[in-house]
Amino acid sequence: MLSESINTYLSIRRALGFKLNSIQTYLASYERFATNVGDTYVRTETAIKWAEQAASENSRARRMDILIRFARFVHADDNQHEIPPEKIFCFRRSRRHPYIFTDEEVLRLVQEAHRLGPPDTLRPYTYSTLFGLLAATGMRISEALALRFSDITPNGLLIRETKFRKSRLVYLHNSVAAALDQYLILRRRIVGNDEHIFVSNRGGHALGYTIAAETFHLVLDAAGIKGVEGGPKPHLHDLRHRFAIKALMSCPDSRDRVSRHMLALTTYMGHAHVASTYWYLDNTPPLMSDIAHTCEAFIQGDTP
Question: 89 lies in a domain?
Answer without folding.
Answer: no
